[in-house]
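Form 12-C: Joint structure prediction
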Amino acid sequence: MTDTALPAGKRGVRISGAFHRLLAFSGLIALVVVFSLASPNFMQTQNVLAILQATSVNGVLAIAATLVIITGGIDLSVGTLMTFCAVITGVVLTYFGLPLPVGIVASILAGTGVGLVSGTIIAKLKVPPFIATLGMMLILKGLSLVISGTKPIYFNDTPGFTQIAQGSFVGAIIPAIPVPNGVMILFLVAGLAAFVLTKTALGRYTFALGSNEEAVRLSGVNIDRWKIAVYATAGGICGVAGLLIASRLNSAQPALGQGYELDAIAAVVIGGTSLSGGRGTVIGTLIGALIISVLANGLRILSVPQEWQTVVTGTIIILAVYADILRRRNL
Amino acid sequence: MTDTALPAGKRGVRISGAFHRLLAFSGLIALVVVFSLASPNFMQTQNVLAILQATSVNGVLAIAATLVIITGGIDLSVGTLMTFCAVITGVVLTYFGLPLPVGIVASILAGTGVGLVSGTIIAKLKVPPFIATLGMMLILKGLSLVISGTKPIYFNDTPGFTQIAQGSFVGAIIPAIPVPNGVMILFLVAGLAAFVLTKTALGRYTFALGSNEEAVRLSGVNIDRWKIAVYATAGGICGVAGLLIASRLNSAQPALGQGYELDAIAAVVIGGTSLSGGRGTVIGTLIGALIISVLANGLRILSVPQEWQTVVTGTIIILAVYADILRRRNL
Amino acid sequence: MDALIELIGIGKSFPGVRALHNVNFDLQAGEVHALMGENGAGKSTLMKILSGVYRRDAGDIRLDGKPVEIGSPRQAQEMGIGIIHQELALMRDLTAAQNIFIGREPRQLGGWLLDEKALNRATQTIFDSMNLKLAPTVPVGSLTVAKQQMVEIAKALSYRSRILIMDEPTAALNDAEIAELFVIINRLKAEGVGIVYISHKMDEIKRISDRVTVMRDGEYVGTVPAATTSMETIISMMVGRTLSNDALVVPNTSAAPVALEVRNLNRGREIRDVSFSVRQGEILGLAGLMGAGRTEVARAIFGADPRDSGEIWVNGQRVGISTPGDAVHAGIGYLSEDRKHFGLATGMNVRNNIALASLARFTRPGGLLDDGAMRKVAERYIGQLSIKTPSDTQEARLLSGGNQQKVVIAKWLLRDCDILIFDEPTRGIDVGAKSEIYKLLIALAAEGKAIIVISSELPEVLRLSHRIAVMCEGRLTGMLPGGASQEEIMHLATQRQSSVIETTNQRKTA
Amino acid sequence: QDSYDIALISKGFQHQFWQAVKAGADKAAAEFGATVTFEGPETESQVDRQMDMLAAALSRKPDAIGFAALDSQAATPLLQQAKDAGIPVIAFDSGVDSDIPLTTATTDNVAAAALAADKMAELIGGEGKVAVVAHDQTSRTGIDRVDGFVNRMKEAYPKIEVVSVQYGGGDQLQSTEIAKSILLANPDLKGIFGANEGSAIGVVNGKTELNSNIVVIGFDSGAAQKGFIESGAMAGAITQNPVGIGYETVKAAISALKGETLPPVIDTGFYYYDKATMANPEIAAVLYD
Ligand SMILES: Nc1ncnc2c1ncn2[C@@H]1O[C@H](COP(=O)(O)OP(=O)(O)OP(=O)(O)O)[C@@H](O)[C@H]1O
Ligand SMILES: Nc1ncnc2c1ncn2[C@@H]1O[C@H](COP(=O)(O)OP(=O)(O)OP(=O)(O)O)[C@@H](O)[C@H]1O
Ligand SMILES: [Mg+2]
Ligand SMILES: [Mg+2]
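Section 2 - Result
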């Protein structure tokens, strides 16, 4: 609402996507510069890799949330869906003892399937996305506990499972930069999502739905189908996040996940995607996710007491977004 | 977006507030009937009072969230603001040893003050409400820990403090229905909020802002001032919630509060208030909050295993809203 | 005598667009000064500067001869400048009365409480003075565009401004309502109010205005007295050339196959047993007063709203249409009367809006979009319909109202349907473009397409239709041949109660 | 080196139990001349967040690390990194399935909860219905305490039935509502075990609000629980020695840095306390406010 109601004139100036990216970047760069000056440990390779690794799960979830938010919807279930997919993988690999690729496919399929269900509830039953995905969040949280028997499922019988996120394919080739696979997967997902959003019909409808759903419907487009497709795609991406977190922890932790949706949505919004839909970029979301993890990491490196970390994080999130707004206005 | 794009003609039929209330009620009634049949303990006076008492804090928070959501905004900080106000009361009463009324005023003032700040960030700096209140949520969470020294503050030196929520003024007069004061305060806040929304200029602008902020601005209204006033009012209401929770726990628990915003927003949306703004009722929110606590209480009374409680809650939230949608459609 | 307001050398640029350059304009007390120009000429922008919505980049504004700065809508109001915006600016969730008095609600109990009764009474008074039959308590979102427009007019009147700007106030109104508006304008004029009047309906200019200022491409062309200047002169000032006005030619389509047949369509009280058919190559005009149910019929055929009963046959085949998707599949296209809510994805660019109904055509295997092809097509339509936009990647919401409408038309032209329903296709479109669109519709019909044109402008219906269907209160009250007279149409269209109370003074101005 | 830099990564931060561990660590730090940081995730399910904290701590290059693993397997690669970097690791609160930590300062939660079961049985006369309000369904301490209590009841007290085990996330308010529901659903209930501080406080709140007189046994201490025991609202509670855990962890880390050898486990012990024994010096020493 607020966004579309911005003064239409000089103030509501639009800037091109590429330029916006650069601007959002500068908040991130400012943070990096400050932390680098404050601590010599910050810019070391290992720490940079730690930051990237810490971004991977939230980044992937945020990309899923980005798709949904651009349609003007919201997905509160990304966190628990991730967990659900991890648990499904655990069941497939550890309980059933099936081979690794089956587990990978199972996770992504589970995510897509749940996304299909959420999307159908939203599109066909017209339940508002907030409620549909809130309900789904709770359902998945419960089901993960039920399926796993409220115990973590370990992947000790699947050697190589930890390699998905923790191994380094890049490091095997260029030992100097052992970028973990999890980070590469994040970039891969981001690239794919950006491609889908900008180059495919699905992406175009994603924006169109967020811009004016009724106009799209009256253009003869089967909006239900596309909406469901968006939620299903987002669900599949959550499946990837499920693999990442399971691999990082070498286990499916059934109780984890709730609360992660807020970090994901925060990354999306910090990255400049409007909650009222119709506008957004994957690269912005990536930057938003990086801002969050750089902040967390930097404050820890500086040994800031935990209660103050929270205060500073809150303040900087507001300031980062405000700076972005200021810069756009002064264009 | 979706909402404003409703066909303008016959389909966008509005139903009167009173009737809508009745409809939303029926979801609640259905739940009550089912639980009453399932367990003889459910409908006992004491359990009904327990349900009401359990609704009081979330209900008050949800009313605060309702005001903000009707403007088309969102307030993620209601939970931690409640805690912050409780901590402030603790400081005033226990650390400074000031008399009870001062503590009560301090809590409400603290809430109003924080609301003023959030509102100003949103209205003047144009930071999206999601980000501004997310940041505020973190800031308040940290500050509560800092101010309290990460310890609960007890109110043992303020006799009568627990009476705020736990005493029963009604019970003193009519012993048969010892409705706790906390519940009466919830009803009082609800009544006041409903009055403000329907009878005062603040209420009018609350709806107007959510309906079409730009149109309000073009009408020459100082929208910033009113927006700030709405957030400040919501903050003051969170201050009341802070008193309630502190009184119930006879302490200000600085670590509590995060996560409460989701329950509050859920109550608002279940109660039929649209997240895109412009529409909503306090009575709907009350019913939404009651649905949530009846569900929780009923499932516990039936000793449903916790993991299944979650699954059932998620499912029923979706179904309750869907039933509401169906009924409205078949009008 | 000093002018009420004077604009001197005004300039204004948006990124990529020079909307105004060195524009002059002045308004005397008690005059109606028409502002004319093609779509995108800069009329609305100039008026937004005058009403404090935009800040000017260059030039001076003088109020009563004194230089002033108009920094906000509020300041404009305080200076006595009121405006009816071209794009409706209403709060859809509020009632008509609440909309009209937003920011100036009557209070009681020392200002603490709103006096809803006084609010509704005051609104009723305004409605009465406009001869408008509308409950003050009706939620605005449930009103038709026409009634919303009346609410906007009521709101502007409630300010009692010395300067009243009307940016296309009649775009959505029918003749009776327009007549009523003119009564009001004449009354205000007599009270010494200066009125800026923007409209693309040329006949209105003659009827109501004293002077005419013409703009073209953001520049000032000239100011002429309305009474002594011929319409042709004004039009040529606007478009830089003279327009030929072709006469209606009714082709003989009686042998052509029936493209669309509607049988016994019913939907609540809005559509009652409507049956008609359109042949290939035929243009069927659908006439009627506001609220006659024409839009409802179109939406029901198109599957936008569910229908209670009735059959739809396309090319001799019964088709089950329950969604707009079904309709488009069956070869039916529908251009909505409310472009902002139902026509445009305002946040998307021109190219995407044009391609919105035909994305499948640009989709390559694997879901990939051929953006190059989309650009070419978009540019073709931008040229063909002379859509004024810096590029095909401009966001649709930044175009002028008329150009937005052209984008929606382009969307349906591209979709290439056999049956096209145009609901108020020329709403807010300038004379030049209007005649282009007429040519286009005629050409489409000549290609064999079946066309239904819903229009509240009788001359337009008469100018285009091979046959004219007239509706009243949800019923089809008659079918007239092309070239019928306005009186015949009005006779069929008025077997109902009008939403405007018919009065004698209405006839006087009409 | 004049001052050691020791990073403690705990399972939690805001709860009083962890604050008491922190207090113990701070005490040892002051005594032995070290600086200590103390961090823990929001809830005990956020295993990955704890990994991020551990990774950031490693980047800081501390002299030693104290670690209370939410999931010991998940931490193995990072612990290996610490080992490779020559940073000694001390485990605390619960064991780490790994030979990297030099020692573990811990409480036996299963045994502690079994003791709570014994006391409960004694107080309700060996028969009747009891319930458990615990904090977390999946965390180690949550599982161990529920299992310890429930299994002990099953094995040793056949006439006692555990009718309900519910989880309130350690949130006092939520635990209050849960306790009330359990009481209302089971009017003949004899006792409730609150398996951590927040749960225990919630149970007493629920009991008070319903004017019930069931037996409540709590866990850990804190001003509220101590007050309840004083007033009789709570029969007694199990206390661990969180201050001792924190103290011993830092002390062990410094010993390790000085090259001293450490025992494989430092048992910091647990006690049952009630109104009568609260003031005993050995108990008073391990209670915190
Ligand atoms: N906020 C904006 N940003 C960019 N360009 C704009 C903006 N507002 C208007 N324009 C451009 O300025 C030009 C003038 O627009 P304006 O709305 O004043 O035209 P108009 O004369 O009112 O046309 P119409 O008759 O179609 O309403 C157009 O080219 C339009 O695209
Ligand atoms: N909010 C509403 N509630 C009830 N009836 C309505 C509402 N809005 C419109 N109608 C009715 O719907 C019917 C059809 O309106 P519709 O918009 O189809 O008419 P139209 O002939 O297209 O006129 P217009 O010139 O306004 O487009 C009318 O009887 C009108 O009074
Ligand atoms: Mg215009
Ligand atoms: Mg119409």
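Section 3 - Comments
Residues C 43-44, 86, 167, 400-401 surround magnesium ion (ligand 3) (CB under 6 Å). Chain A is about 70% helix and 0% strand.
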